[in-house]
Amino acid sequence: MQINLSFLGSTYKALAAAVSSILTANRVVYSAPLGLKGRARVGVITVIPEEFSAAQEVFDLRRNIPETPYFVQTDPTLGDWDTVLTQATDRTNVPLSGDIAAMIQDLRPQVLILLGVAGGLCDDNGKGRDGIDLGHVLIAEYVGYVEFLKITDKGTFHRHYAIDHPSLPLRRSVALPLSKEFDLTGALKLQQPDKVTPQRQIVPRIHIGPIVSGEKVMGDIHDPVQINLLKPFDNSLAVDMESIGIARQVCERRSSFWYNPRYAVIRGISDLVGPPENAEVRAAWKPFAAHAAAIVAQEFIRRLPRDPAPGVSL
């Protein structure tokens, strides 16, 4: 005897259609979170005036959002912006950390970029590590901190607290291809300064590598304090005074299931830590290094993957 089971197919299809209808009716619609002042896809923060001027020029972010320290390209009353620029209240990690906290509270950016200049670190021969040089740009791979120490009669030992490192997915999908194929030389709008010691031909380049952060302006490779502080960071390519501030603040503020900010550190090399005339070279190269970093940041933002628009069902 032959049994006809064809009705099971139609029953299954009807059941699947009913389940699909229920799931669709109950689907949650997500929207990018709003801050106290509105919403930004990308928040760019600079520190010194040369960095802010370079970013403002490259991104054309000149319109101030009323009653805030933020600048945008489009209507400042819009409430929803692609890229927002601000300048930190002061140098070093603690003030920068407070400014990052304020930006997150005000605008809930999906990506934050610490943009500016840094000092390139040298090898034992006084050459930039991994070939890093004046006017080059570093996209930070991870962040170290030199200041949290235990000093004993047996030596100096580093201590640590929780931080977020720069986003690995953004490094893999944005920074890496950018570093391989972007024509930085062709994109630059400023001429290199003549102040180079020793004289050499410098071809702008993009590096991806570690950066170390502290609270001191480091400029003497023979200073015993500087030697002791930097000794554990033998593979870091540059040093600044703000990266740990953004690293800590993003870690603290990523406290909601619905808000998961990521960040990048993009630094132009304004000087090499240690060679003679370090201060004079830094003064001459700061505007160019800030400009180079801003150009790379602009391309970095252009390549960012876009999340679904507000109100799109997931």
Explain this structure to me?
Helix 2 packs parallel to helix 8. It is globular, with a radius of gyration of 24 Å. It is built from eight helices and eleven strands. It has one domain: Nucleoside phosphorylase domain (Rossmann fold). The N and C termini lie far apart (49 Å). With 314 residues, the chain is of the alpha/beta class. The longest helix has 25 residues. The chain is 34% helix and 22% strand.
Sheet-strand content, in percent, reads 15-25%
Element-level helix/strand string? HEHEEEHEEEEHHEHEHEH
CATH topology, what is it called?
Rossmann fold
Tally the beta strands: 11
Structural class label = alpha/beta
Low-pLDDT parts are none
Tally of alpha and pi helices = 8
Q: Using the 3D structure, state the CATH architecture.
A: 3-Layer(aba) Sandwich
Largest beta-sheet characterization: 5 strands, mixed, barrel
For the record, the CATH class is Alpha Beta
- Average predicted local confidence, pLDDT: 87
Helicity level: 25-40%
Number of domains: 1
Rounded to an integer in angstroms, the radius of gyration calculated over CA atoms is: 24 Å
Biggest sheet strand order reads: 5-10-9-6-11
Distance between the termini: 49 Å
Oligomeric status of the shown chains?
A: single chain
Broad shape: globular
